[in-house]
Design goal:
The chain has about 220 residues and is mainly α. It folds into two domains: about 110 residues, no CATH class; about 90 residues, no CATH class. Helix content is about 75%, strand content about 0%. It is built from twelve helices and no strands. Helix 5 crosses helix 6. It is elongated. The termini are far apart. This is LPS biosynthesis protein.
Length: about 220
Amino acid sequence: MKYGQDLIAAGHKEEARYWMDLWERLLPEDEVVHQYGCLTKAATVHTQAEAEELIEEIRGKIEDPETGQERREKKDTELYLETLTKIWRRLGYSRELARLRAELLYTEEDSELEWLAQEIHGYQIHKERRAEVFKLLGDVRRKQGQTELAFQLYRQALDCAQPSYIKTELSRIFLNDLYRGGRKISTYAANGDATEAMDLWLEKYGSIDEIKKLIEK
């Protein structure tokens, strides 16, 4: 496994990818081989789509698909943490915030999530990182079930986000939520009264005018 990482360090990334692909075919059930394979892929992905595919592959290894909660301890999957950090750095996050974003996947306890939020908040002093900070704080609050606060933070992130992968992520969050919310309201309306569903939805956004402004962004 070390040979593959040595190849990457020497600049021979495609050769390293070939080497690790070979090992994964030889030992498809070996967890360590798979972790090193993912680490190698992180250095050799060429597109955003490839990077996101690798992220989802790793999430499938460390999270329960039903609950989204951690099912593998960090000490057993440390290389996945390193891999996720590298991928998010390549997608535009700073080194420190990429690491904290990766840590969030392993964090479930409320006290640990609060600690993580404080760590993330500390980077707000860097103006160029505020979109990342607000986005990740929103992720923490969403994981804690504080949906309204999470979406307030996402809106703050969008307000200061330049065209980037982070802005793409934020756009997806809002579009997916608006789509799901719209369908839910339509279902309630078809069955009688959509007032309650509309009120809950607007708690995230403030008003219809705010939603229109958000879509324009």
